[in-house]
């Protein structure tokens, strides 16, 4: 699918049409990184502010010189903890690393339908719906994801559509819900200039 098709579809929505004049879509939602690195970044970003996530991520990346399953498994838990990772996130990252070394190829999930990707990720300890949505959108580049669990997205959603709007309205943006989410993020009053590895910049 194309940016042109997404714009044409979303122009029919009176709430989103003005935003299409204000903001530019990324050429692709998938960033220039491997899926494992992206998912590690997503895990670090769980349930914290963007600024905090970026600070911790930078410390971990500087210490490890990149995300690899070998480096994460070899890193002592107390060292990772001193870098700012919680005990639960350390457990999630080490479990993910073990799965990858056991044969799970996260990059190959791009060939699978969304529901299959969700099955694979949600069975892992510490991976929930928000992380799965972010993975589908930013690590695999899927164009029809609407991460309702994201606080900033909900803030932009209610600002644009009103406090009485229901998330089900996003169904009319299918099959370009990722583009709609992108527009709403821009309206979330979040500083999008500070973003973790997995986020794609225009």
Features:
11 helices; 202 residues; mainly alpha
Give the quaternary arrangement of the chains: single chain
Uncertain runs: none
> How much helix, percentage-wise, in residues?
40-55%
Quantity of strands, as a count? 0
Structural class: mainly alpha
3D structure, described in words:
By secondary structure, the chain is mostly helical. Helix content is 53%, strand content 0%. The chain is built from 11 helices and no strands. The protein has helices at 3-10, 17-22, 35-44, 50-64, 69-74, 77-82, 87-101, 114-122, 129-139, 151-161, 177-186. Helix 3 packs antiparallel against helix 7 (87-101), helix 3 runs antiparallel to helix 9 (129-139) and helix 10 crosses helix 11. It is globular, with a radius of gyration of 17 Å. 33% of the residues are buried. The mean pLDDT is 95.
In short:
By secondary structure, the protein is mostly helical. The protein is built from eleven helices and no strands.
Question: How is this fold's topology laid out?
Answer:
Blueprint lengths: L2 H8 L6 H6 L12 H10 L5 H15 L4 H6 L2 H6 L4 H15 L12 H9 L6 H11 L11 H11 L15 H10 L16
Helix pairs in contact: 3-7, 3-9, 8-9, 10-11
